[in-house]
Amino acid sequence: MSNNRATKSGFAAEAQKKILSKYSPELASETLEWIAQLTGESINTSGDTANFWETLKDGILLCNLVNQIQAGSVKKVQQSKMAFKCMENINSFLAAAKNLGVTSDELFQTVDLWEQQNLHSVVICLQALGRKAPNYGKPGLGPKEAEKNTRQFTEEQLNAGKNTIGLQMGSNKGATQSGINFGNTRHM
Q1: What gap in Å lies between CA 139 and CA 117, rounded to an integer?
Q2: How far apart are CA 32 and CA 39, in angstroms?
Q3: 120 in Cβ contact with 88 (< 8 Å)
Q4: How confident is the model over 96-113, as pLDDT tens digits?
């Protein structure tokens, strides 16, 4: 785990400091409250990094969460506290989240949570999952996702757009050639 690693220095320390600065305790707290509401578990919803990590690190709560959103998303939840079993739970959660519609850009890596490397990305993933939850009849988290709004145009409407000169093409209204003196001598 992260306790056995040497402290970072140089560029690695600067990069880690920048990653850690993105973490928002308010968003983490809001996310934990949503998880507690959906799973029915009584958990500490404090958003500080230590509590957030301690609550989610074994992956059991995450697996229960996706199983609440869609039953059977994670077939077997490992109840062991052994490192590889916990990481297996986290991987199962990530696979289920991807199947529920969370994009790969919003997913986190297992070590981001297990070794506390990037808890901000964990919050981002859970927020994205919260936006997908209403699609499965569960209470959501965060803003509602936009819905597809396709429009149909007639051929006449499409052709009318071809006759309009866009402003990017420029305009010559009000332009004259006065003041152009290329090739002329300068009169003193």
Answers
A1: 29
A2: 10
A3: no
A4: 999 999 999 999 999 999
Domains of the chain, start order: 9-136 (1.10.418.10)
What Cα–Cα distance (Å) separates residue 55 from each residue in 1, 44, 85, 155, 161?
16, 8, 16, 58, 57
User: How far is it, in rounded angstroms, from Cα 70 to Cα 63?
Assistant: 11
Q: How far apart are CA 102 and CA 141, in angstroms?
A: 13
Angle, vertex CA 95, rays to CA 147 and CA 140, nearest 5:
40
User: What's the one-letter identity of residue 7?
Assistant: T
Q: Would you give the DSSP letter of residue 105?
A: T
Q: What is the pTM of this model?
A: 0.75
Distance CA 124, CA 130 (A): 10
